């Protein structure tokens, strides 16, 4: 039974991970489902719902790490975010075979192929790498309270001008990601 359930979990994780990362995006599962793309928040909200349907519990995990990935640190349009951190959202999935596993489906396979953190071949028995880097501090949150917890954490970490720089940097990163995806598509 556990092997079948593991296969079902892995299939759902991979399906959500294949959805393109998009920012800005509403932070809910419905938007990711309807748009076929999403942010870390919406993709993980969707994954949590998909896992709940098959009886596998999860809990939101908020992690703070560098906003700008190493691959984009030399890009002028990302420079404003170099000193900033991101309040990142992923999941702790409670598996019956290995206990809690950290699952991060933020980056889609074309972005992972370019060098961003992720595991498109995840087999359901290890922690996944974090989009904001491993070794970052993290906080548990409830599904019902994840938005409020994330906003409170952001309020502790960002001034208003830093939040504006963060948003502009995420928009620039998303433009780079779209270009990477376009260059990866067969002609």
Keywords summarizing the entry:
187 residues
Structure summarized in a few sentences:
By secondary structure, this protein is α+β, with helices and mostly antiparallel strands.
Question: Could you please describe the fold and organization of this structure?
Answer:
- The chain has 187 residues and is α+β, with helices and mostly antiparallel strands.
- It has one domain.
- Helix content is 43%, strand content 15%.
- It has 6 helices and 4 strands, in the order H-H-H-E-E-E-H-E-H-H.
- Strands 3-2-1-4 form a 4-stranded antiparallel sheet.
- A hairpin with a 3-residue loop joins strand 2 and strand 3 (99-103).
- Helix 1 runs antiparallel to helix 3 (40-53) and helix 2 (29-35) crosses helix 3 (40-53).
- The protein is globular, with a radius of gyration of 16 Å.
- It starts with a helix and ends with a helix.
Give the SSE map.
Layout: H1 2-18, H2 29-35, H3 40-53, E1 58-66, E2 85-95, E3 99-103, H4 109-114, E4 138-140, H5 146-157, H6 160-184
Antiparallel strand pairs: 1-2, 1-4, 2-3
Helix pairs in contact: 1-3, 2-3
Helix count, per DSSP?
Answer: 6
What is the succession of H and E elements? HHHEEEHEHH
- Reading side by side through the largest sheet, how are the strands ordered? 3-2-1-4
> Low-confidence runs (pLDDT<50, min 5 residues)?
none
Span between N and C termini? 43 Å
Number of domains: 1
**In this structure, how is the largest beta sheet organized?**
4 strands, antiparallel
């Amino acid at each position: 039974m556990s092997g079948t359930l593991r296969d079902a979990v892995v299939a759902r994780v991979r399906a959500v991970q294949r959805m393109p990362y998009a920012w800005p995006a509403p932070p809910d599962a419905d938007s990711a489902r309807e748009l076929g793309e999403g942010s870390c928040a919406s993709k993980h909200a969707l994954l949590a719902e998909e896992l709940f349907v098959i009886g596998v519990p999860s809990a939101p995990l908020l992690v703070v790490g560098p906003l700008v990935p190493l691959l984009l640190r030399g890009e002028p349009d990302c420079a404003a975010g170099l000193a900033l951190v991101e309040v990142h959202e992923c999941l702790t999935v409670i598996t019956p075979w290995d206990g809690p596993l950290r699952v991060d489906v933020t980056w889609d396979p074309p972005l992972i192929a370019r060098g961003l953190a992720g595991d498109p071949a995840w087999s359901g028995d290890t922690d996944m790498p974090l989009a904001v880097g491993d070794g970052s501090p993290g906080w548990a949150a409830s599904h019902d309270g994840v938005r409020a917890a994330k906003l409170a954490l952001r309020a502790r970490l960002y001034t208003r001008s830093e939040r504006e720089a963060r948003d502009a940097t995420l928009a620039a990163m998303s433009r780079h990601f779209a270009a990477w995806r376009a260059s990866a598509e067969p002609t």
